[in-house]
Design goal:
440 residues; elongated
Length: 440
């Protein structure tokens, strides 16, 4: 909760500070700087500006004299007739908020890279298929281990990171893969008919992972109870050699509640353990997970800024790609996280360390900047769209018309918030309840 409050507070303050700074620079008086909407519950005045916390914690606003009606008018007493600033000044002030978030995102990501970020090494490796889950969409399509994925739906794939993002954001539906197999180029259509609780497509394509394991929570791991330790390399199960981690579920899953013999290597020494697997819904489990090799990515000031910029450009492209797929119906709205999802992610990032929390600030700041530029009434992009329309017709729309447009946008935003919040809650429900709501 504290991490969520911190993330939300910092990013809203940055966004509104962008509007505030540009208004001051252009000589426009600022009447209110508010975190939240509605009734003022606390604040102070300084140099003609009322800095306040307001009752409805769904964002914030800066009331700038001459900018026209803003978000506060929708839940307040309504805007008063006033002389408006020139359209170019209004446009610059409105654009400054999202721009500050985007610039802040580059700075946050760069700062995290300067501090050092643990990154899975496979993400920058060639996109070679290391494992195909049996009876998965990839298996049904005929994807084989060793295939090198070149494109997904025409989009070039250079490293595993590109492949992972392309498949995750594909959602359900048809996907066309171009792969290289034994010096042949093949086009393989694949139908993704499954998605995770977060709305991401499940293709069954995985990178190659050594069978080095980490133990699950204390009390739920049969392997730990038998004496297997973190970092052990699994060599064989019941005498059948294990080539990589994904052989484990293949060999253990069909044996729920049965005795298995597992050979491991620990510090160069072979060891053998025999114990009974757990029966979880008719599937054998031993309570272990994979270890993803990581490397510390730590850069200097110039290198981190350059890398931060490149990473934000990449995330921006992927964000618009997902937005496009949302509007076309090819991607599930489940991929969008609301307050509950952001709170969960914030807490996990805070527990992982300051560098993870700073990286999260960068990611969410970028999304906030992009979201606010969308042409949705009540958002900055909606205001900018109205100004562009006014510039075309060479006159300002009546104040009441603008207020009605803002009201429509406000209620649409509330509706979107309800849907996203519902999805957030469903994601954290037990499997049975989640399936019930999904069917509903």
């Amino acid at each position: 909760i504290f991490a969520f409050i911190f993330v939300l507070g910092v990013l809203i303050t940055i966004h509104e500070a962008g509007h505030f700074a540009m208004a001051r620079f252009l000589g426009a008086p600022v009447e209110v700087f508010s975190v939240g909407f509605g009734k003022r519950i606390w604040g102070f005045e300084h140099k003609g500006t009322d800095y306040r916390l307001s009752l409805i914690p769904l964002g914030g606003y800066v009331r700038i004299i001459g900018l026209g009606p803003d978000e506060s008018d929708v839940v307040g007493e309504g805007a008063q007739e006033m002389d408006l600033l020139p359209r170019w000044k209004r446009a610059l002030i409105l654009f400054a908020g999202p721009l500050t978030n985007i610039v802040g995102a580059v700075v946050f990501v760069a700062l995290a890279l300067m501090m050092g970020v643990e990154m899975p090494t496979y993400l920058e490796e060639p996109p070679v298929v290391g494992w195909v889950e049996p009876q998965s969409p990839a298996d049904d399509a005929g994807i084989l281990e060793g295939d090198v994925v070149m494109t997904v739906d025409g989009e070039a794939i250079e490293v595993w990171r590109d492949l992972e993002i392309a498949l995750l954001t594909a959602g359900k539906g048809d996907v066309l893969l171009t792969v290289e197999r034994a010096d042949r180029i093949l086009e393989i259509p694949m139908i993704i008919d499954r998605e995770s609780r977060y709305g991401f497509g499940i293709s069954g394509i995985e990178p190659r992972l050594e069978a080095v394991i980490q133990l699950g929570p204390t009390g739920s791991s049969a392997a730990a109870a038998a004496g297997i330790e973190n970092g052990d390399l699994i060599l064989a199960i019941d005498g059948e050699p294990v080539d990589q981690y994904y052989d484990l579920p293949r060999l253990i899953g069909p044996n729920p509640g049965k005795s298995v013999t597992i050979d491991v290597r620990r510090d160069g020494h072979p060891l053998q353990f025999t114990f009974v697997t757990r029966d979880e819904g008719g599937v054998g489990k031993i309570g272990v997970g994979p270890v993803f090799p990581t490397a510390m990515q730590k850069l200097g000031p110039i290198g981190s800024l350059r890398a931060g910029y490149v990473e934000c450009v990449r995330m921006t492209y992927q964000t618009f790609r997902v937005i496009g797929r949302l509007f076309s119906g090819k991607t599930s709205l489940k991929q969008v996280s609301g307050p509950v999802g952001i709170a969960q992610i914030s807490g996990e990032a805070a527990r992982s360390g300051v560098h993870s929390l700073i990286m999260l600030l960068g990611i969410i700041s970028l999304q906030l900047g992009i979201f606010n530029l969308l042409p949705i009434p009540i958002l900055d992009g909606g205001h900018l769209t109205i100004i562009a329309f006014e510039s075309i017709i060479r006159r300002d729309l009546p104040l009441k018309v603008k207020e009605r447009i803002l009201e429509v946008g406000f209620y649409l935003l509330i509706l979107l918030m309800i849907v996203v919040l519902f999805n957030d809650v469903v994601k954290i429900l037990p499997e049975g309840a989640r399936q019930f709501f999904s069917r509903g």
